[in-house]
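testing teh design pipeline on a random one, pls ignore if ur not involved
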């Protein structure tokens, strides 16, 4: 009896030890897992600290573009730099509004097509020599004209080489007579004709093709090998020969009553210069200056400014000059108003101001030759300028203050039908310059820049007179 009880107690003790051992193993396993999790937490913490540090560095780098407070680290940022979100809105907006008209030619649009010429350069006849059904010979059969088409193509271009032989005749008195100028010392026996020279200027000034690409094109298409130095000499020669035409354009603009002005930066020989444009309906003059002040126009046009109505943007230099009158560009203001609406679409001030300017332009378009009284338009403008804007943004204040200053120069185009409401023509005159800057980046010499501006003035003036560009360049030579 005692032995049986002892055996039972021994078995219970053995079961407890096994249970303790099992619990110990589970406890050891849990401790290992806890240690592993602690290690992973430490690793994640270090990674999080590193990411926070990188995030702060990126925020600091980005802050100079969002809030451009000037310091030594962001001195390269323009002083008028706006935050990236606002800039994206401003740069992606256009005054062109989508219409409900279908794509393509509109109803009532007068179409045009090429007309057949009476005397083609070449006639090619197409006959059937055999029957397509039975194979009979048709070479001796009479042909009946079915239809004719005319094909426009360009010939295979090869350079034309002309040899000019210059003779002298000796008079009885012993004098040598010639109908030509004597050959210059060191002159080349091979020169390029005026067609080639005009084409070089056309490619450089009108199409803005760099010398290297022009060199390749002349060789591959026309079979003409020309050095870049020769191209430069041709352009400089054209610049000198165009000086009388430039002087006439300048005088015509001086005598004009309404002149549009604009200025834009251009890089020349490693520095920032300013290109200026003065243009009318029929003439365009583009020139280069070292500054943006109004003194540039005073030096160029002198007292003739007193007889001009200047169509410009709101650059302060124009209003420091003694013009007869001013008309500010409404397209600039409309773009700013559209931008302000995108910034805050809950306010109505920019919408009402935009409607006022558009109504004025529409009224002028409906009566292009009529003198329109501006009193009612100025009253509407004054009412909008006196609006009490609730907590206006700085951009609203800036535009409204600018309109206060230019209040008397907003509706001049209504009083005078010759005055346009925008300065878009002047901005279009700069388009080739901007293309040139994008392609080449800069002018490498002052002479090259001045030659481009002079020849560009000739081309733009010829275009306004509906004269073919290449013919205008040929006329220089």
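output:
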């Amino acid at each position: 009896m005692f032995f049986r009880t002892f055996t039972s107690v021994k078995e219970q003790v053995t079961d407890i030890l096994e249970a303790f051992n099992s619990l110990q193993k589970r406890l050891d396993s849990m401790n290992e897992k806890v240690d592993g999790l602690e290690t992973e937490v430490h690793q994640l913490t270090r990674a999080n600290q590193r990411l926070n540090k990188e995030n702060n560095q990126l925020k600091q780098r980005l802050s100079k573009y969002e809030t451009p407070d000037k310091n030594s680290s962001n001195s390269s940022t323009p002083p008028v730099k706006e935050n990236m979100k606002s800039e994206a809105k401003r740069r992606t907006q256009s005054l062109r509004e989508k219409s409900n008209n279908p794509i393509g030619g509109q109803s009532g649009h007068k179409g045009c097509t090429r007309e057949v010429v009476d005397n083609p350069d070449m006639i090619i006849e197409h006959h059937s020599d055999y029957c397509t059904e039975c194979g009979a010979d048709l070479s001796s059969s009479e042909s009946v004209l079915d239809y004719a088409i005319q094909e426009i193509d360009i010939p295979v271009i090869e350079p034309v080489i002309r040899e000019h032989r210059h003779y002298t005749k000796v008079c009885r008195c012993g004098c040598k007579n010639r109908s030509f100028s004597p050959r210059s010392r060191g002159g080349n026996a091979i020169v390029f004709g005026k067609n080639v020279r005009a084409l070089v200027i056309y490619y450089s000034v009108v199409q803005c093709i760099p010398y290297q690409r022009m060199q390749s094109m002349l060789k591959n298409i026309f079979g003409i090998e020309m050095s870049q130095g020769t191209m430069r000499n041709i352009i400089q020669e054209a610049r000198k020969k165009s000086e009388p035409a430039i002087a006439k354009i300048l005088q015509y603009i001086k005598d004009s009553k309404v002149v549009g002005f604009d200025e834009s930066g251009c890089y020349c020989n490693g520095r920032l210069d300013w290109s200026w444009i003065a243009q009318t309906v029929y003439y365009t003059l583009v020139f280069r200056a070292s500054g943006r002040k109004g003194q540039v126009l005073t030096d160029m046009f002198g007292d003739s400014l007193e007889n001009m109505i200047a169509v410009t943007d709101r650059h302060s230099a124009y209003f420091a000059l003694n013009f007869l009158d001013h008309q500010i560009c409404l397209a600039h203001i409309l773009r700013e108003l559209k931008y302000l609406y995108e910034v805050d679409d809950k306010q109505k001030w920019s919408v009402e101001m935009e409607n006022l300017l558009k109504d004025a332009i529409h009224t002028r378009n409906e009566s292009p030759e009529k003198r329109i009284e501006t009193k009612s338009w100025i009253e509407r403008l004054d009412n909008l300028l006196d609006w009490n804007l609730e907590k206006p943004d700085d951009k609203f204040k800036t535009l409204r203050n600018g309109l206060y200053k230019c209040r008397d120069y907003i509706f001049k185009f209504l009083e005078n039908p010759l005055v346009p409401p925008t300065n878009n023509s002047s901005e279009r005159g700069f388009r080739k310059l901007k293309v040139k800057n994008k392609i080449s980046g800069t002018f490498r010499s002052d002479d090259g820049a001045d030659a481009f501006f002079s020849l560009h003035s000739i081309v733009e003036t010829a275009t306004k007179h509906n004269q073919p560009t290449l013919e205008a360049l040929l006329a220089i030579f």
